[in-house]
Amino acid sequence: MSTPTPTPDSAATPPDLQPEDYEALEDILEDLRTRNDETPQWEFCEGFMAAVLCSRRVIMPSEYLPVLLGTGDEGEGSFADAAQEQRFTELWLRRCNHVADALSQKIENLEDPRAYMPEVMDVRGMLAALTPEERAEALPDGEDNAVPAFAQVWALGFMFAVEAWPEEWKAPPKDKEAVKWLDQALGAIVALSEDDDGPAEISPFGPDEEGGEEPPPSMSKARLEAFGEGIWAVYDLFEMWRAIGPRVETVRVEAGPGRNDPCPCGSGKKYKKCHGA
User: Fold this and answer.
1) Which is higher by pLDDT, 213 or 107?
2) 3-state helix/strand/coil string of 21-86
3) How far apart are alpha carbons 124 and 25 in whole angstroms?
4) Is 270 helix (H, G, I), strand (E, B) or coil?
5) What is the pLDDT of residues 144-157, one digit of tens each?
6) Rounded CA gap, 181 and 176, in Å?
7) Looking at residues 92-98, what average pLDDT do you find?
8) Mind listing the pLDDT tens digit for each residue in 20-78?
9) How many CA atoms lie within 13 Å of 224's alpha carbon, on the beta-carbon side?
10) At 244, is the secondary structure helix, strand, or coil?
11) Can you name the residues that pair with 270 across neighbouring β-strands?
């Protein structure tokens, strides 16, 4: 799909969540994790949210949040109380509206301040910045292989939503060009869900403040390129499904009685002489 062209008079993207809002979300997820240890991290939620917004049909929070959070009929993974659920939902919808608005913007490059940028963590970079003692404490078993690559958890969250609604993603569009776009876009996100086994050459983030130290390299250059391709893939999917529209269900009509068959009303007459008259 071609790169969207900029629209100078596009409405400004609404304000995003602030750092304290993300901290509140992480606190809620951590509390949910005490009742369901499979409750995901926020980065996973970010990827899931992007996929839900790109879905072929509109999926409501009442349908997808239980799938994401693993809430069940017996209370597993449930919120502590109505206030906690209300707070999570409020923050979720604010972020969701911001992402949807960003994906609706006509941008030329990802450096545009209106562009969609997922909230992802550079875990390998944070570990690389630690002293050997701090690193040993953070990874007591030395399991470096368990540390996710940049944007890997986000991509896993996206693909989790794709697998949760296969009827919306796996039924190919009729247009051959759209099929190619779909395969390429999902392929770019699947590539991000895999490990970055290249050399650590660069950091995805700059210093925390002007004149500060550059963070240590934590990812390969190929990974940064793959990340950009993954973001453009989200734009392509968002635009493609809205151009195609929701799936049209096939209507199957049951065969009715023949004119000379007995009438199903039980009168004993032929259908043509009874209700088929």
Assistant:
1) 107
2) HHHHHHHHHHHHHCCCCCCCCHHHHHHHHHHHHHCCCCCCHHHHHHHHHCCCCCCCCCCCCHHHHH
3) 22
4) strand
5) 557 899 999 999 99
6) 9
7) 95
8) 999 999 999 999 999 888 999 999 999 999 999 999 889 999 999 999 998 766 555 68
9) 13
10) helix
11) 262
Express each pLDDT in 160-211 by its tens digit. Answer: 999 999 988 887 777 788 888 889 999 999 999 999 999 999 998 877 656 6
- The identity of residue 216, as a single letter, is P
Measured distance CA(52)–CA(55) in Å, rounded = 5
| Mean pLDDT (the chain, rounded) | 83
The angle subtended at Cα 180 by Cα 174 and Cα 182, nearest 5°, is 85
Once rounded to an integer, what is the mean pLDDT over residues 228-241?
Answer: 93
Position of tokens 């349908």? 63
Q: How wide is the angle at C-alpha 98 spanned by C-alphas 228 and 238, nearest 5°?
A: 55
Residue 272 contacts residue 259 (beta carbons within 8 Å): yes
SS3 assignment, position 20: helix
pLDDT in tens, 215-232: 889 999 999 999 999 999
Cα Rg for the chain, rounded, in angstroms? 25
Residue that is written with structure tokens 């596009």 in the block: 10
Per-residue tokens: 66: 């239980």
Distance, CA of 63 to CA of 162 (rounded, Å):
14
Give me the phi and psi of 88, to 5 degrees please: -60, -45
Structure tokens belonging to residue 121: 């963590």
DSSP 133-192: HHHHHHSTT--GGGSPPTTHHHHHHHHHHHHH-HHHHTS--SSHHHHHHHHHHHHHHHHH
Tokens found for residue 21: 């809002």
Per-residue pLDDT at 77: 63
